[in-house]
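Continuing the series of single-chain predictions for the mutant panel. This is the parent chain; the variants come on the following pages.
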Amino acid sequence: MSLEWIEYVGLTFNFLEVAWKLVRGVIKFVHKIIKTIWNKTEQDVRNKYDEVKDEGENFKIAFILRINGQNIAKRRKEVEASLISVELDKLDSLIP
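Parent structure:
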């Protein structure tokens, strides 16, 4: 083997090593970009899920309060009606 051939092989290996490092660097860079986008998207999805979950809990609480309010109003009307009937009964008993 001649010296030129050895130099050629050495330069080729150096070139391949530099090219491989460049490719690895590009792959790492692209990986970081994709990972950043993925994490941001995943965090956005989690935030949206938590937001919807909170809205669902708020709706559930509001619905329960509304039902309780309706039940209280209904009971109030029943009590008022019974008081009125009791008072009318008392008045009826006073009239000879």
